[in-house]
Every structure is written in C-alpha cells, then in structure tokens.
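Write out this protein's structure.
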Amino acid sequence: MSEREAAKYPFLKAGLELLDGLDLQLDDLTDPNYGKALDRAAERVKEAIVQGVVSAKLADPLTELLSYPLAVMYVTLIGEQFLSRRFALAEAVRAYNLLQDEYEEKITRIAVDEFGWDIRRDPENIDGVPHTLKLAYPDYLRAASSFHEAKWKLVNRKMENGLVCLTGVEAARLLQVGVEQWVRERVSTPSSFTLPEPLQKRLDDVKKVFEENRVRLSGSQLPDEVINEAFPPCMRYCLEGLLAGKRASHMERFGLTSFLVNVGMPIDDMVQLYTSVTDFDESLTRYQIEHIAGLKGHRTKYTPPTCSTLRTHGICRNMDSICETVSHPLGYYRKKVRRLERQREQQEAEPSNTTAQQ
C-alpha cells in the first residue's frame, strides 16, 4: 500500500502494519525531523475541537500518516470523554469527505476488508437515481440506526433478498459511522505517561485550546452555585428515591452523581446524600464519587448519560415542556437556570415599574 493511501485512511489494516513497521519509540520522536508530524498531530486535535472536522493534508503523506497515532495519543492523555467523542467524529467526517470521491470499488473493498460488511456492486436505477451498491440489511441497520432522516428508515429503502440499495455517497456516509466507532474505541480509554519535552509542549498547547473552547462547545457555562429548582425531573426522581432510602440501580447512582458533579455540588455534600443507603460505605462512596469527578483513577470527569440512555433504563420520569426541547440533563439544567434568572429579573423589576407608575 502506498503511504498516500494509508495517510488518507489510517484505519486500514495495511496502513497500521506500515506504521508498525516503522517501529518508532517516543524518544525517537524528539528528533527534529519528526517536528512536522508532531505539529500536524496537534493540529488534527485542534481542528477537531474548533471546527469539528479534521482536514486531509496529503501533500506530505508520511507526515499525515504519522500524525494520526500521535493525535490519538494526545487525546487519550487529555482523557476527556467529550473530546474523545468529538475527535472520533471529526476524523470520521474527514474519512467521509475523502470516500465520496472514491470509485465504488474502493468503497466496497474498504467496507468488506475493514468492517466485514456484506456489500456488493449491483447497479440499479431507482427514481432516476443510480444505486450502484447493495448492502445486507443487518449491516445497514447497525450503521444507520442513529440516523433520523426519513430517507434512512428501512421502510423507505428498496430492499430485495435482504439487500438494501445504496448510492456510492450513501455507502460512504454509512462507512463514516464505522470509522467513528473505530476511532472512538481507540481514544475512549484515558492514558497516563510522561512525554518527552517536545511532545509535552504540543500537548499543553492542545489542552489550552480545548479549555478555551470547552464552554462554547458545551453550550454555556453552568452557574457556580447548585440551583435545586433547575434539576430535570429524571434527576429529581433519582435524588428523591435516594433520600427516601431506595436501593438505586447502578445507572441511577451514576446518572445522579455525574449530574451533581457537573452542576458543582461539593464532594462532601454528595457523600452525605448516600448515608441513607442500606449498603453505605463512606470511604467507598467517596472514592466512587471522586472517580466520577475525575479526581481518582484515570482522572476523567464523566458527564451524565443522555436522555435517550436514561429512557432506555427507565429513569426518564415526569417529562415537562423543557424535556421535549433537550437531549441531555445538563441541557435541561442550563435552560431552566436561564428561565429562573429571567423570572427573578422580572420580579425585581416589577416594584420599580409600580413606583414609576405611582
């Protein structure tokens, strides 16, 4: 395989073998000759953070190829799940942009060799649009399950003998999902080891960009104080059950604890919440909370599960009008905080308006 081909798609097995063959160690990378690869690796992560998509710079294929595993290393050392997800998606979008320009033979070969799909070339014209590929419906369902557009629903696709008709671009879009999952599996586990100074300098620069953009990416900054009135119904349900001595499920405990960590409740206050639990062990409880808060273990601060995950586990309760507009408990909290602040401002303004009228 050419370096250019491997540089385009770093998830290809042949490309990974090419990298392994270089047998590079961390100390080797301190050589100034690898400076461009270190810079490009940092740039890949920063592009993912700021733009949500990684560019494809193929003029120097070896630098581009080497930069990918280095970028993965930077992401795992930062150890933030939010960054891991964003980086995986940005790399997957990069692959999708490249795949759209490939011949269908290349798309088919990648789908079969790298992801084990049952896909074949079988041209057919549907409503004037050439559909040149057919994919086995189990593979299709796995890849398209997260898509919400009507055209991706299986009921809206032509399927014969268990094969779903696709255009080349549609196949590339489905491969994006496979690439995202592939990258995500490799960056989701935080790592911790000492880097040589040239690598650490670039990692510090990436961390700075991430911190500068964290608030923008997450929507808005959470208030410094915990505002109980802004808790979403699902978290109130978990909290009330906990205070009543209910034996909460693992998901209820994790969801509530990670939520409280992110809205700023002190660790000691959270420990006290669990004293009513029958199997309460203060030292174990404190360790588990500090682990979720990123103070122990891999130093990863966890965020609560999404609303869809909470629904799957039966924790989504007593939905209100705000619930219908958000997809995450922290999104609800931010929106409710803003609503409460507007109400307070209006109430404070009413006496002034009354005085002016008098």
